[in-house]
Amino acid sequence: MPDANPFLLGTSLKRRGLVIWPAGEAACIEEVVKRLGARWPHAEREAAAWKRCADAAAHGHLLIDLANVQLTRLVPLICLSPDAPPILPDPLPSEIESHSDLTEFEPRSTEHENDQPVSIQSTFDASILDRAPRERGSRAICELSRRY
């Protein structure tokens, strides 16, 4: 039976994840999710595994070359020990190159279903929706604003 308290769930997964996926061991996300068993929902197990990778990357302890490898569930990852020295990214160039051939940015547009040009980079205009979906969306936004 899963933990009733959602805050305890993260703690339990973290503790168990450290045993299931020790520092320095290569494993893919899919494999770690299987190792965690069926006690928690699949989405939570996968989220916990990705969070461990994100935390390791933020501290310079994720061993993967993101410049040359596409991150997927099947790519082997190594989370280094927290006491290991961080892996730092390449330094940024000391000077910024200027390109005289760059033109001013022009927003692209595409044709909408009803033959009206729509900017690809514009935000969604909720006023085109019928009343019921627009009100549902507004309530959802209000609820999210209150929660977070």
Short description:
The chain has 148 residues and is mostly helical. It has helices at residues 6-20, 29-35, 42-58, 131-147; strands at residues 26-27, 62-63, 77-79, 109-111, 117-119.
Chain-wise SSE layout:
Elements: H1 6-20, E1 26-27, H2 29-35, H3 42-58, E2 62-63, E3 77-79, E4 109-111, E5 117-119, H4 131-147
Antiparallel strand pairs: 1-3, 2-3, 4-5
- Largest sheet report: 3 strands, antiparallel
Using DSSP, what is the number of strands? 5
**Helix amount, in percent?**
25-40%
User: Which structural class do the helices and strands define?
Assistant: mainly alpha
Question: How confident is the prediction overall: mean pLDDT?
Answer: 77
Strand order of the largest sheet: 1-3-2
Rg from alpha-carbon coordinates: 23 Å
Q: Approximately what portion of the residues adopt beta-strand conformation?
A: 5-15%
Shape summary? extended
SSE order: HEHHEEEEH
What is the helix tally?
4
The low-pLDDT segments are 1-10
What is the CA-CA span between the terminal residues? Answer: 29 Å
Describe the structure.
The chain has a domain at 6-79. It is built from 4 helices and 5 strands. It has helices at 6-20, 29-35, 42-58, 131-147; strands at 26-27, 62-63, 77-79, 109-111, 117-119. The chain has a 3-stranded antiparallel sheet with strand order 1-3-2. Helix 2 (29-35) packs across helix 3. The relative contact order is 0.09. The model is unreliable at 1-10 (pLDDT under 50).
